[in-house]
Amino acid sequence: xxxxxxxxxxxxxxxxxxxxxxxxxxxxxxxxxxxxxxxxxxxxxxxxxxxxxxxxxxxxxxxxxxxxxxxxxxxxxxxxxxxxxxxxxxxxxxxxxxxxxxxxxxxxxxxxxxxxxxxxxxxxxxxxxxxxxxxxxxxxxxxxxxxxxxxxxxxxxxxxxxxxxxxxxxxxxxxxxxxxxxxxxxxxxxxxxxxxxxxxxxxxxxxxxxxxxxxxxxxxxxxxxxxxxxxxxxxxxxxxxxxxxxxxxxxxxxxxxxxxxxxxxxxxxxxxxxxxxxxxxxxxxxxxxxxxxxxxxxxxxxxxxxxxxxxxxxxxxxxxxxxxxxxxxxxxxxxxxxxxxxxxxxxxxxxxxxxxxxxxxxxxxxxxxxxxxxxxxxxxxxxxxxxxxxxxxxxxxxxxxxxxxxxxxxxxxxxxxxxxxxxxxxxxxx
Length: 430
What we know:
The chain is of the alpha/beta class. Helix content is 42%, strand content 20%. It has 15 helices and 13 strands. Strands 6-7-5-8-9-10 form a six-stranded mixed beta sheet, sandwiched between helices. A four-stranded parallel beta sheet has the order 2-1-3-4, with helices on both faces. A three-stranded antiparallel beta sheet has the order 11-13-12.
């Protein structure tokens, strides 16, 4: 017998009714309602209608279905009552669990990773972004091989989790997937090299690079627009910004600097996406200063901060990279909470309280950025003569060597050091 979701699968990519299920396993950093609200927001980001939210306690993980039979029956009844074609599990499901749950619930099932990949698939606006999302998607699907992946020939946004043609190719061609992934990796390596050349030119200027980082929907793009006069898309949606944007800005005492707006992070960001987006996020890794924009009005602001720091570590951002926090959205706080936040920020040298929307605190933030850039170390690209061992030793002794390679048989070093040491390096031997 054909179920409803099999008949209508190709028709509910947008406007579909969905149920969000949170399997609570052990201690959680977030409250259940906040987590369910975030996942509902992720679903809304691709046009789904969340009809119900259900939290279930998982005391013993079931290898076949993750949750127990009684809980499955409760969810199935809710899906029928709400006429939901889709059930979103706010957890990582194995391929077996996903298949078994779809059969038991008679509805399409996706997990958190699949949902985030679908959002990224729709939002990637550049060729580079789509390459990265497709690579992440194929990596995710390679271990499943239960979905058709004819999305490789489709032009629509997304990658087939919600609008795919069905499980018509259970025996997917592993070799073809591997070949496609290898081709994508080669193309992304070329993108990375091109970005590296652009970054080298900036370093030789050298213009400092400031990267805005933060949890998704923290207000980075609103802040970016205010600082640069740009018109980057700003929406009250998770992952409104996906592809990076760079703009030149002026700062007190600094003629030119580069400001980078980046994709927002989220808890449990799929490892496939972290790996695939390393090329894009190289601007973050190589930044002279990170501004961690936080939605200070959000009830889970502290947990979001921890998630961002975790992703930065996974990306290879050094703990020594200078950074400070911009506590955003003062305009959403009541008078008492606002006074408390302003008092706390005033006590901390690593925090500036702002409203990117209203402009409060922006002047102080720009002054803080300028002060940090002039007092902290910068990154430089140094080309030495092949036999200049003393120069290489000097760089290792007085700076932090971040990378080195050969270019036309000459050693090239990427090094972080103070402006004073950079000047000393330029005049050594005189």
